[in-house]
What we know:
The chain is of the alpha+beta class. The protein has helices spanning 2-17, 88-91, 159-169, 211-224, and strands at 23-25, 27-30, 45-49, 57-64, 70-74, 86-87, 99-105, 113-123, 129-133, 139-141, 153-157, 178-186, 193-199.
Amino acid sequence: MTFKRSTKLGLAVAAALGFASSANASLIQVGADTFQGVGLGSVNTILTMTSPGATSTETASVGLNASGVQVITGDAQTGASQTQVRSLSTLGVTSAANLRVVFNASEPGGDSINLNNLVLNIFSPTGTVLFTSGAFSPVAFPSSNPGVGNAGFVFALDGTQAAAAQTAAFGAGFGTNLVGLSASASNATGGLETFFVAQAPGQPPTAIPEPETYAMLLSGLGLLGFIAPVAGVSCKQ
Length: 237
């Protein structure tokens, strides 16, 4: 009976620690953050797009296919400093709660722009999709931050959603996982729209428990199930 109880306790703890393979979440706009050196080439830009010709809409994406090969689609600018997947270690992101996606709209004269979709994807190095953010609520910006060197508009995962992303993509060795983005905008008039990903300024790294830590915890809980007081025995001098 003791063994069964301890086994059930271990399974319950494992479930509480949140072992899972994938999750979905939505990006939400948050207050402005001050990022250092935000010019193109100075930050880890993941996606750059522009409306082609005389059109006012733009859609683009960058990610990995099932073979781990980078794929760029749509109205993306294909320069290495403009569009490419980047690893979490390169981005300096140590937890889902501190991950920020920054939309930098470069419209002439700071004109308005609509961000209709923004999806974050995290891949394993071999191309497995570990995490995909969910449905995005379109945002209409009455004015944009003119110039590619501005920090722009900041998006993050809320607490509950970030916890799901943490489980899905921030386990042991998470630094080699790669971030891609897809986005679409309207009321765009030819400027470059860029997106970069970074750790929230002023946020310290978050320690990520290794699998060995979980194993030691569960082993300790299992041993507790075998330890019971010995009735009628006392120590006297």
